[in-house]
UniProtKB/TrEMBL annotation:
Domain of life: Bacteria
SUPFAM superfamilies: UDP-Glycosyltransferase/glycogen phosphorylase
InterPro entries per the UniProt record, alphabetical: Glyco_trans_1 (IPR001296), Glyco_trans_4-like_N (IPR028098), Glycosyltransferase_grp1 (IPR050194)
Family annotation (Pfam families): Glyco_transf_4, Glycos_transf_1
Domain Glycosyltransferase subfamily 4-like N-terminal: 104-209
Protein name as it appears in the record: Glycosyltransferase
Originating organism: Sessilibacter corallicola
Sequence ranges assigned to domain Glycosyl transferase family in this UniProt record: 213-377
Amino acid sequence: MNICYFVNQYPKVSHTFIRREILGLESLGAKVIRVAARNSPEELVDETDKQELTKTRCIALGNKKGLLKSGFKQFLSTPLNFIKAIGVAFQLAFNDQNRYFYNLIYLLEACELLRICNEQQVDHIHAHFGTNSASVVLLCKILGGPNYSFTVHGPEEFDKPIQISLGKKIQHASFVVAITSYCRSQLMRWCSFDHWKKITIVHCAVDDQLLAKEHKPITKANHFINIGRLSEQKGQMLLVQAIALLKQRNVDVHLSLIGDGELRGEIERFIKANGLENNIALLGWCSTAQIVEALDDCTALLLPSFAEGLPVSIMESLARKRPVLSTYIAGIPELIDEKSGWLIPAGDDMAIADEIEKIIQLTPEELNALGEYGYQRVSNEHDSVQEAEKLLNAIKALES
């Protein structure tokens, strides 16, 4: 079976879960053609991502003439389909704050995607995210391309479901993947009851390297880590505020932030203004090997998110037998409970500080028991091949 994966940007440091899914499908015998609208090679730090870059076709960035050529050829070969696709693109644009120019670009990307699918004899297209990527594969289908499906992660899709025409994309899809039960419930809100049966759950998976490598027991009670894009959504400003509160209480605590993003400057200024240079380290984006090393050297993962799907960093932490402190929002409670970590209200720096202070008082035996339970959960529910098989079976079922 030939499956085309279409993602707005791939590979990407924060999209390792897509890479694992693709490799899982290939281990099951599927041929996966990788197509991205754009990519940023200079951002990649993981060798596996760099290898994925060589396998991925980039159809938009720096390819203006190619897109126009594909659009012209598609109009000549199937003018009625092309006109119909223009109508759908305009419908998408009307919902999307009249962004007609962007949706016409998506139409040209769909023409180029269709050309590749025909060339590679693609049986099915799968996209990740219900935003731009799903728009392109929907338009490709209208042009006469293969059936499509797409995975929704949240929270971006649920912040603007009408603007991105989420219901229309579900309507035309063969099936839709939700990464959690919470995600599935949100999709049900934005499509008719007749389409609920299309929604299936396939979890994001953890890297086998994280699960299989020899585990180190927790020996330190005051070394914490956060992994993710430095953004409002992830709540890192609350973390640094909590560390400042703990310093005022004379609590010895250390935090490493892995990731980068728009909040880095603000976080750096807060660290300097509050004299937290010896308490907080900003490590930037790291490779999988570096993340494993950092997790193995920490007590627990701290992730005080405001909005989420189900963060891959939580799965990565549990894969290394490290418990997790997070917020009881979205799909997080589906994996984290009192047996594998701690859940607190979102948006409360005092609650974070109080919980960290309690964690520091726990014995290594108590911390390791939490990590061990979390490891068993993530091993059973987020195996890359097991989850890829669910997706592959859903695609194969379309042929029967």
